[in-house]
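Example 4.3 (complexes with small molecules)
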Amino acid sequence: MSALINLRATETADFVIKVEQLSKTFGTRCVVNNLALRIKRGEIYGFLGPNGSGKTTTMRMLCGLLTPDTGKGICLNYDILRDSNKIKQKVGYMTQKFSLYEDLTIRENLDFVARLYHLPHRQERVWASLEQLGLSTRANQLAGVLSGGWKQRLALAACLLHEPQLLLLDEPTAGVDPAARRDFWEQIHHLSATGMTTLVSTHYMDEAERCHRLAYIAYGNLLADGTVQEVLDGSGLTTWVVCGIDLWQLQSQLKQLPAVEQAVAFGNQLHVSGRDIDALNTSLQSYQQDTRYQWTLAHPSLEDVFISLMQTAQDTSL
Ligand SMILES: Nc1ncnc2c1ncn2[C@@H]1O[C@H](COP(=O)(O)OP(=O)(O)OP(=O)(O)O)[C@@H](O)[C@H]1O
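Answer. The structure with adenosine-5'-triphosphate bound is encoded below.
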């Protein structure tokens, strides 16, 4: 019996976030529905789903900014219902909107955040943070004149200053160029290697692929989770790639066929997908014999899978 209890304690200790039956309703709208999440220490966990699917609401419930209507669990070994104040102190939360002072310099912003947290050795920590995030040479620039990429780097520095154990990043790279997004993700992986756990919401597929694990939610319901490969394998989706002439016309015809769930243009190709492989192949047979087109069986992309999940999702929020 004691061995069993020890095993359970170890299992829980491995998870920085372990919650179940998490729900939240605003008015009559259920925006998070019976959600369960398990995230291990050091993991980069991606949170994907269409606009309004409940990602931000879930993050806010995890870090104690919002009280769930139902549900239970732990975050950083604290009870999410009872210990929200303790959780807040150990979490770095980066919101979608740049929330620092545009008329203060980078250094002044970090100094301000350090004061808010009553951090000891404030000056040293601010300079160490500037150094760590590659911001030293811009320390005296006003935050308001920074590009999107530098603003987001400053926001990350600010939410790391109090040395949190968990990062909750809500669409941290929205509107940021690919090079800056790549730098940002290098930082997240570097932090992960030091044991930092990150839950990050994003709409970018390349970012989803950079996560160790991910979850896809729609209408507040968890529709898939796992590694990228597990999510792809679990989709049951078959995808054909077709090249040829007049693809625009072909696309509109294919969309009418039974078992064709998606026919989407990607450059000079169409991705044609469905979950019932036999019915899909029957529908496509005559087109595949047409010499104007070249068909190749392909692995579905994450985007194909997410769109398919979204199409089959039920709106249970009303
Ligand atoms: N405080 C609130 N009061 C009422 N409704 C809210 C509140 N906060 C969020 N909502 C609603 O809850 C739903 C889920 O919102 P949420 O911000 O969690 O979604 P999201 O998945 O983060 O969306 P996005 O990808 O656009 O950021 C939306 O319909 C939103 O309008």
